[in-house]
Sequence to fold (281 residues):
Amino acid sequence: MRNEVKWASLILREGGVGVPYRIDISCPPDDVLDRLVQSGALDIERVGGGIAAIIPDGVTPEAVAGAVGVASVIVSPAVARDNGSVWLLSPHAVRIGNVVIAPAEVAAPPGALRLTDSAAFGTGHHPTTALCIEAIEEAMTIAVPDSILDVGTGSGILALAALTMGVPQAVGLDVDADALEVAAANARLNNLTDGLQLVLGGPDVVDGAWPLIVANVLAAPLIEMAPILVRRVGNRGRLILSGIPRSLESEVRQTYEHLGMRHVRSEPRGGWTMLVLQASW
Fold:
């Protein structure tokens, strides 16, 4: 069973999110921030004497102009990140638990995980990524695993974050060779190459079992790969699954419970759900 679908690239489509756009306002009113937030702005940033914002596609530029109280706004395409699932006006650092993730070119505190700007999924700004990192931190408060398997590694963010937390070894899998090149570059950027092994393919191309596995892909491939993925979970091992739309949580959960995994907890965020399961063996 080798799933050749580029898992991360489907997150936007399965989540059903439209494509936002950017607006610029040259002479904004004093309360522009509040008005833009009320209009549903996804990101807001001051630019010179004006202001820029990312607006959901369901809100028209005319509606924004009326809400803000200006005659018109300048409209331009938004810059998509995380393979089209997150839109930001400019790259910036983000803290998730005790991990700071920052683009290579921006200021960040010592010890931050640096990531190159690329099309590969995993910048730290998508809720599914944050949920996984938080769940990895939670697992490490119970016991530090000697290794982690990251299925659908994308930019390598989850495997690299685990290494920075103290996990000695990580294996990152992806069906996208370009993503593995990005992950390798990020490992070099953070001096983490010794701890990271990258493999092209899914969980069927590796042998053995892991005490901690994380798979931030999509509901459909999670269900498809469930039998082989469960066989990769070690004794009393923990499995973190994300990239699951809330409407499909029960379907994914039941699939893994039928294979012997015990549900530990679920956590929703931004329309997505993360599942934590533990081996019953």
